[in-house]
Amino acid sequence: MGPTLILYAVPFFLFTVLLESYIVYKMHRDYVEAKDSMTSIGLGLGNLGIGFVTKAITFGASFYVYNNWKLFDLGQTWPVWVLAFFGEDLTYYWVHRISHEIRFYWASHMVHHSSPKYNLAAALRQTWTGNLSGGFVFWLWLPLIGVHPFIVMFFQQTSLLYQYWIHTELINKMPRWFEYILNTPSHHRVHHGTDLDYLDTNYAGVLIIWDRMFGSFVSENQRPQYGLTKQIESYNPAKIAFYEWVQIVKDVANAKSMKAVFGYIFGPPGWSEDGSRLTVTQMREQQKK
Fold first, then answer.
1. Which pTM was predicted?
2. Is the distance from CB of 154 to CB of 160 less than 8 angstroms?
3. How many Cβ atoms sit within 10 Å of the Cβ of residue 140?
4. What is the CA radius of gyration of the chain?
5. Percent helix, strand, coil in the chain (nearest 5)?
6. DSSP state string for 172-221
7. Residue 224 phi, psi (nearest 5)
């Protein structure tokens, strides 16, 4: 059950990436760049390969909690599936948000934001270190209350599959009711934007209602600039996969206090001991001034 659904979808991913590239070429738009797309595909394949090991670890942890510590025997009835869907999607929202607010988790997640293009290939640009950094522990509350690990992993995979199609500039807006409830290309383009108004917004997986509820929703008002606030000038998948981890090691090695060490690892991305770099909050404060 582990990576099965994702593996089945790989031919569809490759076909639609090529189809989108052809359409963009005929439209004479700049939405796709061949080298950038190949880098994204390389990172996606690396994620799949590493996933055979890391998914075994995460699935084993889920089963251990479920078999030894579960608080209730909920079974697998339809209300449990409904609970699991909302529970997994809400967990995704907060883990995604934390991944933008704590550098330790950003080091894995920034890989997905590293493309200066926004297209279906960029959706495949996935982390190699996400599970190794322990992000899976945030989902363990579901097997703890009695949701079977198979159900949890099913919704984790369907969430990723859902989010694939929203990585495109070819779709403008969905119907108004759809835009209000569900994540869409428009909402997710904002999330990938480096414009100051767009940074650290729209963390949704499937349901955009969480962003509306927790104050992180921003609507698309202009075409975003994509990528990172400081771009990685490389098409090397390995360099991109480990880039931020290397930067953390360098910062920690040069830190002048334990407080600074903590800040470089667990502070927000952009935090610096001497103020030479800025966090998103600091950039917004500076803009107001």
1. 0.96
2. no
3. 19
4. 19
5. 65, 0, 35
6. ----HHHHHHB--HHHHHHHHB-STTTTT----SSBTHHHHHHT------
7. -75, 160
